[in-house]
Design brief:
Number of strands: 8
Shape: globular
Low-confidence stretches: 3-27, 30-35, 86-93, 364-371
Order of helices and strands: HHHHEHHHHHHEEHHEEEEEHHHHHHH
Strand order of the largest sheet: 1-3
Structural class: mainly alpha
Strand content: 5-15%
Distance between the termini: 42 Å
Radius of gyration: 22 Å
Length: 507
């Protein structure tokens, strides 16, 4: 596993240099770093390259209450989950699409992504400037750096829109050589960083991950990310619909030539013992209690279970969810309270079902150590899924229908493969739909398939269905500040003050 290698192989002086570089660059984002790494100051062995590349995972994760916790908090802006703790102000703010400029989740995600970018920039520079490296060894690490930089920028443009675009390892200039670091248009970041980086990653990464699981990205993971990038570029805000064809083409390549398939049972994807499985998981972050621990734990337990109930299922989305195996697995609709009374979800304190999806991840996050409820905490094991094969099937179905003007045979096959597993039979397949109805079916299926995986918000935004989806919940819709200026989150106020940037509209 990455974490053991990271601990055992990182040389002390390398760690100090990398740490000082990342933190100096990210505290106020664009400050000149205190230490600069060059081929002259660091010996690039395979061991060193592996250690530096493994550090990207720590960068992306951040610190306590890291990456997946922050994604979950911002995902409250979507329609699939909400917060049970109504006294926690973030729930109301996110549901209303009006997040304060000093929001901690926004600030920390911004920091995680740019810290990862700075580290990736440095790895890319060091490898490309060193003529003595064995390319067969260095390429896979170079490919991972390109992948993580592209992934980080992809999150950035979807959350914040225009943003500083930095590939300079010294973080002193942007892609146009400007030291003022203006926010660059979304289109520029896609075309000048994300797409070229993914092209490089596809060419450099191996077909099989270096640890033979689903965490280290592969060529296929890079292609999956690329298909998502293409279908996003086809939607809001760029709306360059020619990219639907590119998304379909890329997804079709993965479907026909990649090593992936749907696992037989949806619930098996969320078993701690099978979290490293690479049958369906294409790219995921692995967690243990000692390395990148997740925050799935007590945050997902209801009030009636003495939990924090930070995240619960949205009741309107739940009611619209078909009664398939996914719904049965993903939700808890009744529980026994501390007095031994059975309570159905309508009578829960929050009036919403609890989330079951991450409760097979053991450790402290489920029910405490050895069943001792007093040891419950926010920490849990498991994985944070970024891409699954089901995503690829649904991307192809949506993109090909849009590109060709009607669903083809493969599009139906892809959609129905997801549908068949959900119901456990072939009696609920789609057939004979108009292009519009087919698009609606894919949209719904994506929401149900990926419920609580922090992807719904991005889907709602690129398809411009935020108002429609969230407005179905009368309690939220009545106070919804839903217009496209609120599709973007606020730039951290400190960054705007330092660089003289204008924040996103509405902030």
């Amino acid at each position: 596993m990455f974490h053991s290698k990271y601990k055992n192989t990182m040389k002390k002086y390398i760690f100090i240099l990398l740490t000082s570089f990342s933190l100096a660059s990210c505290v106020d984002l664009l400050q000149e770093p205190q230490s600069k790494l060059t081929p002259a100051t660091i010996e690039l062995t395979e061991q060193t390259l592996e250690s530096m590349t493994n550090g990207l995972y720590k960068d992306l994760w951040g610190e306590n209450f890291g990456f997946n916790c922050r994604l979950a908090s911002l995902a409250l802006a979507g329609d699939d989950m909400t917060s049970g703790a109504l006294d926690k102000v973030r729930n109301v703010l996110d549901d209303q699409l009006k997040v304060p400029i000093d929001n901690a989740d926004v600030l920390n995600l911004w920091k995680y992504f740019y810290q990862t970018i700075y580290s990736a920039n440095n790895i890319i520079y060091l490898i490309n400037e060193n003529e003595n490296l064995d390319t067969q060894i260095s390429n896979k690490y170079l490919g991972e750096a390109y992948f993580f930089r592209a992934l980080s920028y992809f999150y950035i443009v979807r959350y914040w829109g225009d943003a500083p675009a930095i590939t300079d390892p010294n973080s002193s200039t942007d892609i146009d050589g400007s030291s003022n670091m203006p926010r660059k248009p979304v289109k520029d970041i896609y075309e000048r960083i994300i797409l070229p980086d993914l092209s490089n990653a596809i060419n450099l990464l191996p077909l099989q991950s270096r640890d033979n699981n689903n965490q280290a990205p592969t060529t296929w993971a890079a292609k999956t990310l690329l298909s998502d990038v293409y279908i996003t570029m086809a939607g809001w805000p760029l709306k360059e619909e020619n990219y639907y064809a590119e998304a379909a083409k890329t997804a079709k390549d993965i479907i026909e030539n990649g090593p992936y398939d749907l696992v037989g049972e949806y619930k098996d994807l969320w078993m701690n013992t099978k979290k490293t499985d690479k049958t369906e998981h294409i790219f995921a972050l692995q967690h243990s209690l000692s390395y990148l621990p997740s925050q799935y734990g007590i945050s997902y337990l209801g009030k009636e279970e003495n939990g924090w109930y930070d995240y619960v299922g949205d009741p309107v989305f739940f009611k619209n969810f078909p009664n398939d195996k996914r719904k049965e697995f993903c939700y808890i609709t009744s529980t026994v309270d501390t007095k031994g009374n059975r309570i159905d979800w309508e009578d829960f304190d929050i009036g919403a079902p609890f989330i079951r999806k991450y409760r097979n991840y053991g450790g402290w996050g489920t029910y405490g150590i050895d069943g001792n409820t007093s040891t419950r905490s926010s920490l849990s094991e498991g994985l944070t899924p970024i891409y699954r094969f089901a995503d690829v099937l649904l991307i192809y179905a949506e993109a090909s229908n849009k590109a060709e003007g009607s669903p083809n045979t493969l599009a139906y096959k892809c959609l129905n493969r997801v549908r068949d597993r959900a119901f456990g039979d072939q009696s609920h397949q789609y057939a004979g739909l108009t292009p519009e109805k087919f698009a609606d079916a894919v949209f719904d299926e994506f929401g149900w398939e990926n419920v609580f995986e922090f992807k719904r918000w991005f889907q709602l935004v690129r398809t411009e269905k935020v108002d429609e989806a969230i407005g179905k919940n009368a309690a939220i819709g009545a106070r919804l500040n839903a217009n496209k200026e609120n599709y973007l989150f606020p730039i951290p106020v400190r960054q705007c003050e330092l660089r003289g940037w204008k924040n996103n509209p509405g902030y």
